[in-house]
Amino acid sequence: MNQTSQQPSLKEKQSHGTRLFPCAYYHFCNPSHRLRVRHHWHEEVEIVYLHHGSFKLDINMEPYGTDRECFLFINSGELHSLRSLSMEFDEQAVVFSPSMLLFQDYDSIDESILLPLTQNKLTFPRFLDQTSPFFSAFRSCYQQISHIFSRSKETLITGEQILTDDVISQLQIKAGILQLIGILMEAGLMCQSPRTESQKITAIKTVLSYITDHYHEKLYVQDLASQVNMNEQYFCRFFKRSIGKTPIDFINDYRLNKVIRLLETGDAQITEICLECGFNNMGNFQRLFKRKTGITPLQYRKLYLSKKSE
User: Fold this and answer.
1) In the Cβ-directed half-sphere of 6, how many Cα atoms lie within 13 Å?
2) In angstroms, what CA-CA distances link 277 with 240, 257, 280, 286, 299?
3) For the segment 183-198, what is each residue's pLDDT rounded down to a tens digit?
4) Full set of structural domains in the chain with CATH
5) CA-based, 20 to 30 A from 297: which of 1, 74, 119, 260?
């Protein structure tokens, strides 16, 4: 899962799945690191399975918390973040484009369910937990989909994504997603009225878009505030209330995540990575990196490569 009138340009830049099969599976259960997914949004629908653990969520600037097994639904365009509060956790997600479900020959299913889903006129509920009599059937179907992804003849792992190029597996996954929607429709949990986006959410998306497009440049609070026509003082309070961090803290954290990805995937010099990610002061960069990870960038790279080789 990455970050985020006209729609602002920011959305998660990572594509989910492939062009011919826009659907991917994710599974996080690392006991040595807490899960932290920063604020972002994407056009795809995301069905998250929180198998166990304690989690804090933020969806369209509304906070949620859960420590029970449940399903969480992220509709198209919803700004969201997720983090685990416990070291022991298991989080899974199926992310897909609703358009992949449409049939070539337009029929009543397309008209009443699938097309409204692609237009965000039919939306998923927020949660589904064991208090629902439909929970067991939904979980069983979801687990079949995750099993197909993991056991496919042509399973591909790209970054954090698990994909499949096997056509039969894709057919079974597509049928499984349709079955999930059928269970929710039968339960009367799909919402027919479109969700409208508030001006505050649009403003935050605009600012996050600007940060992700310009993080490698010098950024000032005034630059961000001007994107949404606010004065600096009011903007700082608004951003902190919305995201839970000051604008500068968010920018630094975003840049550090970019640094970490480059340390893991390339062999560029630390100084080069530092400058490429928008840090112009090496001493400040080293201090922020150590505060985030507990070690220096060089130590991080050596430790990562050592674990990878094992």
Assistant:
1) 5
2) 23, 9, 9, 13, 19
3) 999 999 999 876 677 8
4) 23-186 (2.60.120.10), 199-309 (1.10.10.60)
5) 1
